[in-house]
């Protein structure tokens, strides 16, 4: 799948600790734009009708065993035909030494060639996971992201509503800050979002009247986290007299981010409300719902049963 985002090939090489055997002249700037990878078994037999050279190519034991059955002349012809394509990179797995013909053609056509000690399937899974993260659709939104009892809670609302102050109280209660003011959100799977802070403001927080603080330096490394899944959206709004707020929790609000539908709760804010405790309850209640228990539905069911049984 071609993405509008990209990642440097060099970044992937360093991330997966690949050993370079030959790097092209444009290695430093080479970009990978697809999350797909390829094991060129069919291509090594001469079938190129359906071949995408922009994918990272991998040779494992199956391909190596087949190549070992060829004569040096046949291998040279096979690798020359393969390397004529502008492949992104070729990775030889299991720490197997490359055939001399492979290295010769990589140098002739200036292709990126690497080796890894990892098993082919293991490396393929790790590489695809890494590519999906690097090339994932993403947005940056205004809000505060905290992890509360393992639940990623995205606080949203108007500027000055108290998002940062609420997050600070949660940090003091043992929870962790991921991002303040700006949250980078990536969709790494069909229904999974990961949130983090922009690198420049990571672990910083702005508090009106105090200024900017570094949460990691003040509260320690246990008070922060680089990223987390987003499980719940909390919309904070100023309390409006006369407005009907949900008191039972039977109605379900949702919020859409990058095509992923998340549960949302709306918390009215007014003086005297302990918002940190409310956020903790919201996170625990959301976890309970994911585990199959909904307190509001249980109460409503018990109420209906009592009426049907004539207990009222």
**Biggest β-sheet: count, sense, barrel?**
8 strands, mixed
Q: Helix count, per DSSP?
A: 10
The chain-level mean pLDDT equals: 91
Structural category is alpha/beta
Radius of gyration: 27 Å
| Oligomer status | single chain
Approximate helicity band: 25-40%
- Read across the widest sheet, the strand sequence of neighbours is 14-11-10-8-9-15-17-16
What fraction of residues sit in β-strands?
25-35%
Query: Termini distance?
Result: 60 Å
Q: Globular, elongated, flat, extended or rod-shaped: what is the shape?
A: elongated
Low-pLDDT windows of residues: none
SSE string: EHEEEHEHHEHEHEEHEEEEHEEEEHH
In total, how many beta strands? 17
């Amino acid at each position: 799948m071609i993405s509008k985002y990209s990642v440097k090939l060099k970044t992937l090489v360093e991330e997966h600790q690949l050993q370079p055997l030959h790097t092209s002249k444009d290695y430093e700037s080479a970009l990978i734009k697809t999350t797909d990878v390829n094991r060129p078994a069919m291509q090594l037999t001469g079938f190129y009708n359906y071949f995408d050279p922009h994918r990272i190519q991998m040779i494992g034991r199956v391909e190596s065993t087949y190549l070992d059955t060829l004569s040096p002349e046949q291998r040279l012809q096979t690798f020359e035909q393969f390397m004529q394509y502008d492949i992104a990179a070729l990775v030889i797995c299991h720490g197997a030494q490359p055939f001399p013909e492979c290295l010769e053609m990589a140098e002739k056509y200036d292709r990126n060639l690497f080796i890894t000690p990892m098993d082919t399937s293991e490396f393929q899974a790790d590489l695809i996971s890494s590519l999906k993260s690097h090339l994932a659709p993403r947005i940056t939104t205004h809000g505060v992201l905290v992890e509360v009892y393992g639940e990623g809670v995205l606080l949203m609302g108007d500027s000055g509503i108290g998002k940062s102050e609420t997050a600070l109280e949660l940090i003091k209660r043992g929870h962790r800050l991921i991002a303040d003011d700006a949250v980078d959100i990536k969709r790494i799977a069909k229904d999974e979002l990961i949130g983090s802070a922009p690198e420049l403001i990571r672990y910083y927080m702005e508090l009106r009247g105090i200024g900017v603080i570094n949460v990691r330096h003040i509260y320690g490394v246990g008070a922060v986290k680089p990223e987390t899944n987003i499980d719940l959206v909390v919309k904070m709004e100023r309390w409006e007299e006369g407005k009907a707020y949900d008191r039972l929790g039977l109605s379900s609000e949702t919020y859409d981010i990058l095509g992923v539908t998340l549960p949302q709760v709306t918390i009215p804010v007014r003086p005297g409300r302990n918002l940190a405790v409310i956020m903790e309850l919201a996170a625990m209640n959301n976890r309970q719902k994911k585990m199959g228990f909904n307190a509001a539905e249980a109460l409503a069911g018990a109420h209906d049963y009592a009426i049907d049984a004539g207990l009222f």
